[in-house]
Amino acid sequence: MATTETLETEIWGRPVTFDYSEHWVGYSLFLLRIVMGWTLFQGGVTKLVTYLDANPENNWTAAGFLMNAVPEGNPLMGFWGSMAGNPLIDQLNMWGLTLTGLALILGAFGAGRILGLDAYLEDLEVVQSNPWLRYLLG
User: Fold this and answer.
1) Which residues contact residue 106 at a Cβ distance below 8 angstroms, ignoring those fewer than 6 apart?
2) Is 85 a domain residue?
3) Which helix (H) or strand (E) element contains residue 6?
4) Which of 5, 13, 29, 78 is exposed most, by the fewest CB atoms within 10 A?
5) 10-residue stretch averages of pLDDT, the chain, 138 residues long
6) How far apart are CA 21 and CA 2, in angstroms?
7) Total of domains in the chain
8) Residue 112 near residue 138 (C-beta atoms within 8 A)
């Protein structure tokens, strides 16, 4: 039987109380990680495939977004515009989306605890010499 908890909080100055099931919260977070992971992974892989198909006409670039998404008068407009068309920025975007999506998907299936990644990271010298890093690992 699922455990039901009661949450009492305040939203916009009004007290709110509601019951929730820990069982379904876990499933919801699992599903959210899978959906968001797949969305990012698919976006990154699609960009990588179009970039790596050796046809320069198909190459994806972040230039259109960097040049047109920043509103006029923004003090960083020149900074974002200077990155437009830079191949390094395009590669960072493609690989960042792909690897972030993959990490979310693997993390949803317990890569940290089940596959032993957390144990490996906790044994690293940098984590041993900086105990506060253990809080990041859970």
Assistant:
1) 115
2) yes
3) strand 4-11
4) 13
5) 78 86 77 93 92 79 87 88 90 95 84 64 82 71
6) 6
7) 1
8) yes
